[in-house]
């Protein structure tokens, strides 16, 4: 059991996951809980999706200069999304550019997982650290944030043990997030 993804969670949460994994039923359980894939498949669609949420929850936050899916981010590593601030001098003023990169694993995922990671990266527009204020903001954007992060980590366990992607791109039949 690749517990690294679930480190820090209590046994009453991780043991049922380990059992399902042993029985080869973890993928099935995840698909049952999250039956739908979202339809945000391109960088253009991701840009619109992120800007809509930003408009709803963080209207006064800085404008990201770049919003993309990034296939180079470790899909099963620590960094699922990244947020970088690049300070540049522009017209005599110091300007900070914000770039949001979302790991490619979220391109073929349920809408809940996408919303969770986008909430995380949007929260970084205001809060740099993973502190209390940061997670409060995550929960304001997505009230189920913590459960979704756990379930995403469960999915990473599934992938890390050789499980197949559970929400592959289908042509045209899926609904937008
Ligand atoms: Zn973060």
Automatic annotation (TrEMBL):
All residue ranges annotated as the YgjP-like metallopeptidase domain in the record: 92-152
InterPro entries noted in UniProt: UTP_pyrophosphatase-like, YgjP-like_metallopeptidase
CDD domains attached to this UniProt entry: M48_yhfN_like (cd07344)
Protein name: YgjP-like metallopeptidase domain-containing protein
Species this protein is from: Azonexus hydrophilus
């Amino acid at each position: 059991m690749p517990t690294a993804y679930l480190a820090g969670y209590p046994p009453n949460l991780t043991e049922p996951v380990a059992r399902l994994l042993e029985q080869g039923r973890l993928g099935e359980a995840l698909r049952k809980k999250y039956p739908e894939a979202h339809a945000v498949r391109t960088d253009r669609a991701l840009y619109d999706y992120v800007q809509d949420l930003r408009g709803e929850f963080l209207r006064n936050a800085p404008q990201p200069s770049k919003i993309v899916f990034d296939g180079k981010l470790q899909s099963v590593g620590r960094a699922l999304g990244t947020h970088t601030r690049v300070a540049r001098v522009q017209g005599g003023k110091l300007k900070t550019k914000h770039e949001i990169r979302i790991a490619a694993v979220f391109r073929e995922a349920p809408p809940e997982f996408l919303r969770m990671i986008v909430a995380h990266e949007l929260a970084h527009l205001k809060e740099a650290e993973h502190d209390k204020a940061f997670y409060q903001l995550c929960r304001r954007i997505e009230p189920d944030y913590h459960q979704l992060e756990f379930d995403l980590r469960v999915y990473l366990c599934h992938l890390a043990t050789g499980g197949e992607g559970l929400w592959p791109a289908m042509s045209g039949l899926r609904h937008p997030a």
